[in-house]
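Schema walk-through. Below, the input block comes first and the output block second. Nothing else is stored per chain. Lengths vary across the set, and this one has 293 residues.
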Amino acid sequence: MLPKEIIQKIRRIEIKTSRMVMDVFAGQYHSVFKGKGMEFEEVREYQPGDEIRSIDWNVTARMGHPYVKKFVEERQLTVMLLMDASGSSFFGSRGSLKSELAAELCSVLAFSAIKNNDRVGLIIFSDKVEKFIPPRKGTSHVLRVIREVLYHKPEGKGTDIRMALEYLNGVVRKKAVCFLISDFFDCEFRQQLKITNKHHDVIAVTITDPREISLPKVGILKLKDAETGSEFYVDTQDAKIRNEFSAHSRKLLEERKRLIRSSGVDIIDIHTDKPYSDALFKFFRARERRIRA
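--- output ---
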């Protein structure tokens, strides 16, 4: 039995994100993510202007006059959500944790998918695969996905993106649209990301908190690495230390972006102090322009 506060939270997210899907992203998801190709629908009599290549010669021979095969776009997709549940995801300085923001993003993407009759699956990972929900369709299934991203208590603390991608390739054989949602505090995943993107359409959703870029001037701070547990003290009154921290953090973020882009993967850059809808809009528009070009 789920705690009452989790049930209420699921309901709030369902209302908020489903409204956003209807009012904001209607049509964009459909236009950006195409089906796997064309599938056969029926055979009909030949009409002037039909492609000669579409003639069904077997039916034509039986009926004595030309018939053609009619195809329609196969719309149904598989959408996989890969959510990082490592220790660093349970950090937030602007009202919500990165893990809570990731849950909302999963909800928006999942509702967008089922609105288009696509299947949705989930992989929650840390330094191990924490949870796998096979892709299915339907609102009740999506609510189960949301419940898991909100309620799951991870066992691992570290981050192993390479392992999560290997697991994805093992359980999802047909091409899928895969949203990899993480702060990417990992460095050994480039080759596997590149391999996975050849089989699937991978989109990296990076989540960053402003306190991971700059330190406030508040005196002596005790900091703890959420993934390794190591602790240390920092004198934030020292401008040199704050500047060095900021420069180092920005260098890591640029390296993260370079590593992901070099794998041929698109990026949706989410910041906890900014509306994530803006970043999703930017991604959809960029994809649409690329498709048209």
